[in-house]
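dumping this here so i dont lose it
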C-alpha cells in the first residue's frame, strides 16, 4: 500500500496569545481571517507583525489563527541567521527555554523571553489515517519525495488527532533545497 501524503510548505509565521494580540493591536482586538489553512479551524490572518531580532528584522510576519495559549514564532534556519537568534529545532508548542524576540504591532511592542523555534518537520494525521496505516502519535517516520532533486526526509514526527487533516509540513529551507512546492506529495516509507 502506498502511503501518499500531501506536502505543505510552512513559511515563517507567528501564533499569538490573546494577551499579545491585545498588546500589539489594541484592547479587545480580534484577528480577522484572510484564508483557511490545511488544518481544520486554522487560518492565515489579515494581520501581520514586525519581528525584530538583534541582527535584523522582518516587517510583515503573518499571524496564524486562532489565538493560542502562548505566543510562538516559527522560522527557518535562514530566517534565524537573518534575525540573529538561535532557536532550537522543536515540535510546535514546545517553547520552554527557546529563543526570545521583539514583536511590534500598530498599537504597541512586546518582547517575548521564549517562543522562537525552528519547527520539526511533521505530518498531521487524522486518527482514521493513522489507524489505516498503523501509525502512532509521536512516531518518527521517513518520507520519500521524488523529482529532479529527490530526497528522503528522516525524523518526520507523526502528530495524530481527530482534529487534523492529512498533511506534511516542512519549512522553506527544506522545500527550497529539495525543489518542493505546496501540493507536492511524498510517500511514507517507514
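and the seq i came up w/
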Amino acid at each position: 500500500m502506498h502511503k501518499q501524503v500531501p506536502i505543505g510548505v510552512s513559511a515563517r509565521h507567528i501564533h499569538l496569545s490573546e494577551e499579545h494580540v491585545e498588546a500589539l493591536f489594541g484592547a479587545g482586538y480580534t484577528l480577522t481571517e484572510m484564508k483557511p489553512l490545511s488544518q481544520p479551524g486554522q487560518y492565515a490572518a489579515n494581520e501581520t507583525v514586525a519581528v525584530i531580532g538583534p541582527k535584523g528584522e522582518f516587517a510583515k510576519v503573518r499571524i496564524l489563527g486562532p489565538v493560542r495559549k502562548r505566543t510562538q514564532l516559527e522560522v527557518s534556519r535562514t530566517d534565524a541567521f537573518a534575525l540573529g537568534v538561535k532557536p532550537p529545532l522543536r515540535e510546535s508548542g514546545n517553547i520552554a527555554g527557546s529563543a526570545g524576540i521583539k514583536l511590534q504591532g500598530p498599537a504597541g511592542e512586546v518582547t517575548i523571553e521564549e517562543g522562537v523555534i525552528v519547527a520539526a518537520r511533521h505530518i498531521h494525521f487524522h486518527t482514521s489515517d493513522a489507524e489505516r496505516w498503523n501509525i502512532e502519535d509521536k512516531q518518527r517516520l521517513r518520507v520519500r519525495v521524488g523529482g529532479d532533486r529527490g530526497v528522503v526526509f528522516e525524523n518526520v514526527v507523526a502528530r495524530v488527532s481527530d482534529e487534523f487533516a492529512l498533511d506534511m509540513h516542512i519549512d522553506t529551507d527544506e522545500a527550497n533545497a529539495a525543489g518542493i512546492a505546496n501540493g507536492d506529495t511524498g510517500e511514507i516509507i517507514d
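The longest helix spans residues 18-25.
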